[in-house]
Automatic annotation (TrEMBL), chains A, B:
<feature type="domain" description="CoA-binding">
    <location>
        <begin position="82"/>
        <end position="185"/>
    </location>
</feature>
<dbReference type="InterPro" id="IPR022876">
    <property type="entry name" value="Tscrpt_rep_Rex"/>
</dbReference>
<protein>
    <recommendedName>
        <fullName>Redox-sensing transcriptional repressor Rex</fullName>
    </recommendedName>
</protein>
<keyword id="KW-0520">NAD</keyword>
<feature type="DNA-binding region" description="H-T-H motif">
    <location>
        <begin position="18"/>
        <end position="57"/>
    </location>
</feature>
<comment type="subunit">
    <text>Homodimer.</text>
</comment>
<keyword id="KW-0963">Cytoplasm</keyword>
<dbReference type="Pfam" id="PF02629">
    <property type="entry name" value="CoA_binding"/>
</dbReference>
<dbReference type="Pfam" id="PF06971">
    <property type="entry name" value="Put_DNA-bind_N"/>
</dbReference>
<keyword id="KW-0804">Transcription</keyword>
<dbReference type="InterPro" id="IPR036388">
    <property type="entry name" value="WH-like_DNA-bd_sf"/>
</dbReference>
<keyword id="KW-0678">Repressor</keyword>
<dbReference type="InterPro" id="IPR036291">
    <property type="entry name" value="NAD(P)-bd_dom_sf"/>
</dbReference>
<comment type="function">
    <text>Modulates transcription in response to changes in cellular NADH/NAD(+) redox state.</text>
</comment>
<dbReference type="InterPro" id="IPR003781">
    <property type="entry name" value="CoA-bd"/>
</dbReference>
<dbReference type="InterPro" id="IPR009718">
    <property type="entry name" value="Rex_DNA-bd_C_dom"/>
</dbReference>
<keyword id="KW-0805">Transcription regulation</keyword>
Length: 220, 220
């Protein structure tokens, strides 16, 4: 099935991820048939919107019966691209040579496999990265690394001042998608898929709320 | 200044974070006066919207002159709560005992300090966490940990099936805000600030786009 991505809104995709998580839990609980009302109760999304979201991708259920939990789960997995392995390169600057919670298996999509780690700094070259079984490499070999390991995704974990330049190098070397963890938007050709993840920004709503709301002290 | 958080939209806060990043870069470049047109050029946000966002929080510039870069930077830092230190507890389940890229100083807000690490699993108790200078503790001592170290933020990095239960324990122990990295929404009282961060979801738009778009091969 070829889906034209411009027809599907980002919000639909985000909700599909939520359906995917809930269906996983339901499977673990041994629930074999699921109705959109129950999916709605567990996700907080209206059953009408759930049926509408799923309808973009085909017919998955039987009217009056519901969806087969396992089947719907696997179909959403396919739709989201989680049934494929996505070889990924992680690029940072003077990173600690340890592997992150961010990449900790329970929180990280299983389909995304880090197969290379590059550090823009000179002093970490050749250092082993615990947990990944990899050695830190140089950006100078980026083209070789991407082509020989069939890498499609680059994770950009460099400071803002290096973000655009590094993205340009990755794109030139053949990368197809970038997850940008630097706190700065990058510009890329239209055929490159980009996801911006700004940790500072994710925390800012919280620190803003906490700063401007009087807090009860539960400890005294 | 007391700001009523319900008056300020989440999008305004997200844009403030972007102004903050750009102003930091401009300071590093030695630019002492900045006009909204230049902030707009660098952020991709219209100068009109920039002036409107800033106006929520007061008068920062002089008409026809612009903003003093350093002053505006520090004021936004205050508004976002980055001028305060937020003591934070990280809670996971069977975490690798290493510190994450997620917490790697260049990508992580400086104001958020991890002062305790809890693992719900038994086997990691007492193990040292490299880079943080901390030792993994038990959830049984959560009330003591939160109160004695004046912790306001909890980072939830547990699997979905443990998310709500762990959040409840944190809230009961006095936590004020939660950054939820588990891929499942949690329910909390209204006075608890919550930020959801779903890594799988962040990657899903990318894997969806990559899966459903024909890709040119740059390597052959």
């Amino acid at each position: 099935m070829l889906i034209l991505r411009q027809d599907i809104s980002r919000l639909t995709i985000q909700r599909m991820v939520l359906y995917h998580s809930v269906l996983k839990l339901m499977q673990e609980e041994g629930i074999t048939i699921c109705i959109s009302k129950e999916l709605g109760r567990r996700t907080g999304i209206s059953p009408h919107l759930i049926r509408k979201d799923l309808a973009y991708f085909g017919e998955f259920g039987t009217k009056g019966v519901g969806y087969a939990t396992g089947y719907l789960y696997r179909r959403i997995e396919e739709i989201l691209g989680y049934d494929t392995s996505w070889n990924t390169v992680l690029v940072g600057l003077e990173m600690p040579t340890v592997v992150p919670i961010m990449c900790y298996p329970r929180l990280w999509p299983e389909a995304v496999k880090i197969v290379a780690v590059i550090d823009l700094g000179k002093q970490n070259q050749g250092v082993a990265v615990h947990n990944l079984g990899l050695t830190i490499e140089s950006i100078d070999n980026i083209k070789d690394i991407i082509c020989s390991r069939k890498i499609t995704i680059g994770i950009l974990a460099v400071p803002p001042s290096h973000a655009q330049n590094t993205a340009d190098q990755l794109i030139q070397a053949g990368i197809k998608g970038i997850v940008n963890f630097s706190s700065f938007p990058i510009i890329a050709p239209e055929d490159i898929a980009i996801t911006q993840v700004n940790m500072t920004s994710l925390f800012s709503q919280l620190t803003f709320d906490l700063k401007h709301v009087a807090m009860k002290d539960s400890c005294s």
